[in-house]
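--- STAGE predict ---
source: upstream dedup step, 1 unique chain passed
mode: sequence only
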Amino acid sequence: MMTTAWMEPAEGEVGWTRPAIDGVWAPAEVEAVVTSLFVSEATNLVRLARFFVDDRDAAEDLVQEAFIRLARSVHRIRDEGRRTAYLRSIVLNLARDHNRRGLVSLRHLMRSDASSIPTVDDEIGGREDQRHVIAALRELPPGQRNPIVLRYYLDLPISEIAATLGVSPNTVKTQLQRGMSNLQRLLGGAQ
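--- STAGE serialize ---
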């Protein structure tokens, strides 16, 4: 016998979860959503965080905190498509706060030999020309830097950038244009 969301499971059936009642989700529902998003988005979110923090461990910590915050508030996000944008927004905010406070991951200070092996992201960041671009990006105001990173590093369309940043698509286009102009100036290019 198949169960529906409002019926008790038949003996031996698995995978049944109670539907959200008054905005409260069953733990299994929250876990399923968070796990699914973790599998699909965690790597990109760590890459995103790495643009804003020097320490890979700190970037991973920020992403972990973003998923914890998502788990606490996932029931309030009615549009499933907005969940990823919400996660990106949390990561950007946490990275900004991290840098504002000058926080450093304790794990970064006590690296083991195994963790000192550079990752692909570390190798990319280690190239001189790319380090120069990343340094210039960090000089941009967040309103210009964030859209550039989301557009050209994560390859997001304007609509997803707008959803992530909570602004209109036209605002994103303006921020991208201004940011690219300032980035070009910082890198010593002709305007």
